[in-house]
Design brief:
single chain; alpha/beta; 2 domains; 10 helices
Length: 310
């Protein structure tokens, strides 16, 4: 077997304390483990204990602790791409438990073909177990693989990904411009839009179920800080989805996607039982669409378009 390509593990983190330290420890104990661990920390003020532990880990060279001043998932991941020292960059959330073969499975996937630019690993959400499903997925167009189940055991090409267990060739990530920083706040669909650009530029994205994690979905920190999307008039929950659709092109499929979203968002059991929240939610959707149109008009915010991307 060829020697495995070294992997940089990048953890974008925001307002997570002990669970972040646990995630770092889990990654350290893997065999093989990442060649380096980079924590891109968007937390302005940490608990004293966590601050001390991260500082000590950084001082010992166990992690590289990079602090940034503004919370943004795409921005933090772009920093991870730029700061990584190795050919493959693996992004994981700050509240995960990795399977023992996580690093090996990601690394081995890239040995198969130079066409593989990115690998999406299996993600088991709370209560989920691996499923050998025969579910029918959308294969083409705007909806391609948006309904893909990442608890699947079926190895396949994908055109949609989630960022809590996602690796990419560093040089190819830079080639396509990294992650679009116009995906703000919750940044919904930002990783799928990145995936689509990989395909558009000649690369492929592989779903590898052997590269598995359990995602804890800790309720504090992360994107949870934006509150409950069911009762919020904020545009931050929906702006990413509308922006993602607009970037697909102004066509009938895009318009249908945009028009369907508000109805989908209020067609829930919650809103059936609490109909007084429907106008509030619709206000948030209108605001989200207007903000997405503004961002789309401004053009993408990619690494390759910045004066000094790295």
């Amino acid at each position: 077997m060829n020697e495995l390509v070294p992997i940089s593990a990048v953890i974008p983190t925001y307002q997570r304390e002990q669970v972040l330290l646990n995630t770092i420890e889990y990654l350290q104990k893997l065999d093989p483990r990442p060649a380096e661990i980079i924590a891109v920390d968007q937390t302005l003020k940490r608990e004293r204990k966590t601050e001390q532990q991260l500082s000590l880990l950084n001082k010992k060279g166990i992690i590289r602790w990079i602090r940034v001043q503004r919370p943004s998932i795409p921005h933090a991941m772009n920093i991870g791409i730029c700061e990584s020292s190795y050919p493959i960059v693996l992004f994981v959330d700050d509240d995960i438990v990795p399977a023992s073969g996580l690093i090996e499975a990601h690394a081995m996937a890239y040995q198969e073909s130079d066409e593989i630019w990115s690998v999406a690993g299996q993600v088991l959400q709370p209560g989920e177990e691996p499923v050998a499903d025969s579910f029918s997925y959308y294969k083409n167009g705007l909806y391609a693989h948006l309904n893909f189940k990442f608890c699947s055991t079926s190895r396949t090409w994908v055109k949609s990904v989630i960022a809590c267990n996602l690796s990419v060739r560093r040089d190819k990530a830079l080639k396509v411009g990294g992650f679009d920083e116009n995906f703000i706040s919750v940044a919904y669909r930002f990783e799928t839009e990145f995936c689509r650009r990989i395909w558009q530029n000649g690369g492929k994205v592989l779903f590898e179920p052997k590269a598995s994690i359990r995602h804890l979905r800790v309720q504090s920190g992360g994107t949870r800080k934006y509150g409950n999307h069911l009762t919020s008039p904020s545009p931050m929950h929906g702006v990413g989805d509308y922006y993602f659709a607009l970037k697909h092109g102004l066509n009938s499929e895009t318009m249908k996607y945009i028009l369907r979203r508000p109805f989908r968002e209020i067609s829930t059991k919650f809103h059936l039982k609490h109909p007084w929240w429907i106008p509030v939610k619709l206000l948030g959707e209108i605001r989200a669409l207007l903000l997405a149109m503004k961002l789309y008009k401004q053009g993408p915010k990619l690494l390759q378009l910045q004066d000094d991307p790295c």
